[in-house]
Amino acid sequence: MVFAGAMGIFEGIAALARDDLFVVTRHYVFEFSLTGWGWVHLIVGIALVVSGCAVFTGALWARFLGVAIAGLGAIANFLWLPYYPWWAVILIAVNLFVVWALCAGMQREADASSPV
Fold first, then answer.
1. Contact at 8 Å (CB) between 103 and 67?
2. What is the pLDDT of residues 43-92, one digit of tens each?
3. Where are the alpha helices (DSSP H) in the chain?
């Protein structure tokens, strides 16, 4: 999660700092300014890093928060596909892996704590 968040932060900073790096498409349904997308990715990235650090404490609420924020990160990167497709696909995969890992970890803990 911390890695996915750091990559989201870098993506947000790149969108805020250099607009000419990204492809601007016409007539895209979710057309925001690149500055707006930069802020979205920056905020989601920071939230991923913070919730990733909270997962290290072992708190159950942090896992639920991590699943929600990683899901939002995957959605944000899906909407980011026309601007920077390869980076977006990689971050979608990383965020979906984070969701899977957090959910699988909850299942293992539930199995270990149930009486046989």
1. yes
2. 999 999 999 999 999 888 899 999 999 999 999 999 888 878 898 999 99
3. 2-17, 34-55, 60-79, 85-113
